[in-house]
Amino acid sequence: MKLRGIELRRVSMPLVSPFRTSFGTQTKRDILLLKAVTDDAEGWGECVALADPLYSSEYVDSQVDVLRRFLLPKLASPEGQAAIARSGAAAVAGLLHPFKGQRMAKAAVEMAILDAELRGLGRSFGRELGAVADRVPSGVSVGIYDSVPQLLTVVQGFLDAGYVRIKLKIEPGWDLVPVAAVRERFGADVPLQVDANTAYTLRDARHLAKLDEFDLLLIEQPLEEEDVLGHAALARQMATPICLDESIVSAQTAAAAIALDACQIVNIKPGRVGGYLEARRIHDLAAAHGLAVWCGGMLETGIGRAANVALAALPGFTLPGDISASDRFYQTDITEPIVMADGHIAVPAGPGLGVTPIPEVLDAVTTSAEWIPF
Ligand code: NPG
Fold first, then answer.
1. CA torsion angle for 353, 358, 361, 366 (degrees, to 10)?
2. Based on C-alpha coordinates, what's the Rg of the chain?
3. What is the 3-state secondary structure (H, E, C) of 16-85?
4. Which of 133, 239, 270, 352 suits a disulfide with 119, CB 3.0-4.6 Å?
């Protein structure tokens, strides 16, 4: 495979409604897309970094900078080109390993090259990653609202639409009351979980243990990213399973968290862990230890969403992911919309991602584009 170059393209997409979490409110997404051009095909990657370093230390301008200055020159070097010619996308992580962190940028470039490679081979992401299902259950993530009645109206709408699992964002001051209200209104049978995005400390352990009575599937990332031992201590003080998100940035950190009993479940986000190939390693590791995993979401466009659906079709993804339909966040997606039917989303079967940006729609949301020849 000969890489001719990579295009960096920034798009700005308004959200259908504001999305509030414990770290901030999003009203639009400023997204970096990568297009890898090879002799045979074009492939797309989506960088999940946000505009601000509020979810993780990465942010979109930093990811553009590191791609331009370090990651792409390494791939374009004679050594990089030779390794990619030999092994394709499988060579990318090893080539970029000397550069610390920057996992969202690394994931995006590996994804674009993998998509180009698979399109050239006529093989789908699902087939390549090891998907065993042709559709995946669709869960939805519900933001923080000003009032409980507002929240209940929103949850009602998602249940009516067919979503099979509800995730409520929580923070200090917005936890027991909204969870109790959702349980009371919609009953004990609704699969329900909560996500704190690091908003608590271990001093809140007794308060968080009060969530146990609501029979939640899990509580996601209650404590800070680096507080793995705190999560292990919290796990001993509450019955609700602990799921880690921000803390798990690689298969290595997943192995440590599992060994320390810091989590019973792992949220796998390919962007956060450096790519779909590392995401698959975490899936394999968790399966070997008997832990359930599920696929997280970062408000992706159809590009990232299609790849996430393929990943979520691996056998160890036994819990519904944050993989909702395009219209959960975007009125108009840049690809053909990802749709939900009967609470599920179909795994794309076409070559590569199985979806492609629609040129006119893509152009309409593009704020800048830069071609970097190799
Ligand atoms: O369905 O794509 C989705 C959003 C799921 O809540 C969601 N993501 O912390 O998991 C999270 C949260 C998030 C969104 C984090 C955007 C960072 C950016």
1. 60
2. 20
3. EEEEEECCEEEEEEEEEEEEEEECCCEEEEEECCCCCCCCCCCCHHHHHHHHHHHHHHHHHCHHHHHHHH
4. 352
- Using a 6 Å cutoff on CB, does residue 297 contact ligand 1? yes
Q: What pLDDT score does 57 carry?
A: 97
Cβ–Cβ under 8 Å, residues 373 and 5: yes
Is the CB of 322 inside a 6 Å radius of any atom of ligand 1?
yes
Q: Which residues pair with 13 in a beta bridge?
A: 29
Q: Which atom of ligand 1 is nearest to the CA of 267?
A: 10
- Per CATH, the homologous superfamily of domain 127-346 is Enolase-like C-terminal domain (3.20.20.120)
Residues 8-44: pLDDT tens digits? 999 999 999 999 999 999 999 999 999 999 999 999 9
Cβ–ligand 1 contact at 56 (below 6 Å): no
Average pLDDT, the chain: 98
pLDDT tens, 68-77? 999 999 999 9
- pLDDT at residue 203, as a whole number: 98
Active site residue 169: yes
Same fold, 3-122+356-373 and 127-346: no
The full DSSP string for 186-254 is H-TTS-EEEE-TT---GGGHHHHHGGGGG--S-EE--S-TT-HHHHHHHHTT-SSPEEESTT--SHHHH
User: Domains of the chain: which residue ranges?
Assistant: 3-122+356-373, 127-346
Dist CA 163 CA 192 (whole Å): 11
- Asked if residue 38 lies in contact with residue 117, where contact means CB atoms within 8 angstroms, the answer is yes
pLDDT tens-digit profile of 302-357?
Answer: 999 999 999 999 999 999 999 999 999 999 999 999 999 999 999 999 999 999 99
What distance in angstroms lies between residue 365's CA and the mean position of ligand 1's atoms?
Answer: 21
Residue nearest to atom 15 of ligand 1 (CA): 298
Please state the CATH superfamily assignment of the domain spanning residues 3-122+356-373 in this structure.
Enolase-like, N-terminal domain (3.30.390.10)
Mutating to test ligand 1, I would choose from 16, 17, 245, 322 the residue with most ligand atoms within 8 A of its C-beta, which is 322
Q: Is the CB of 38 under 6 A from ligand 1?
A: no
